[in-house]
Amino acid sequence: MERTTSSPGGAGRAIAAIVFLLHQLIATLGVLVTAPLAFVVFSDFARLFGWTLHLRDSHRVLTQTPYFPVQIALALLLGWLLGRFLAHRSMLWVWVLPLAVLGCALVAFSSTGQLLLHQYARLSSPSLLPHFFGWGCQNLCLDQLLITMPFYSAGAYSLGAWLARRIGPPSSFAEFARSVNKRRAALAVGLPVLFLSLTSAALTAFRGQTPTTLFAVCANTLGAVVETTLVTLLLVSLLGSTGGRGRVSRWIAPG
User: Fold this and answer.
1) How far apart, in whole angstroms, are the C-alpha atoms of residue 186 and residue 129?
2) Which own/partner pairs from 246-250 qualify as long-range (CB within 8 Å, at least 24 positions apart)?
């Protein structure tokens, strides 16, 4: 049940509209902004397996791949987590507005060419589907980034929320947070993540890919701590989103 519609009359509808707008922003703009951070975290741990991702790789994956795998995976994860802890029905419908925008763009494309940057129309495919869903829109393709990608991410966000509703009643994040054994969470999740993050930073410095000055070492260490905090919070929240049924989840949050 939508928890935000319990207020009577117009106040309830206003709150429901605000909640929907917030989920809409998270599913589109939020995913667009946080996807580079997710890519950086992934690349740090990928170095442990000998896979080095450079800045040019981030541009290619985040903005030049028409299927936007990072944004879709991130939106699916966010939809799952928030769906388990909030269970707002409005999360299931955030794809409607991006679909409407995409539909208008598809209709208008035949007469306008590239919608956002007309001066780069020579880089675009004259075909509709490759322009919005394939490799026909090259380089400065804001049409896919600002029209197609929000539809993908909003759809993945709604799918994640729908899957979360299918596994059972929602969990309460406040109750789970109170029940978490902070020491166990730090030992079982935080300490291994910190070790892996520091190892990745050390390997990068050893290979000569980053400076080894005192300032650089301190900056990399601080970055590893911040990264560890974010990843630990994410992993502990994922454990909480299982409803406390997993063995590790019960050990970290026995209450």
Assistant:
1) 48
2) 248/188
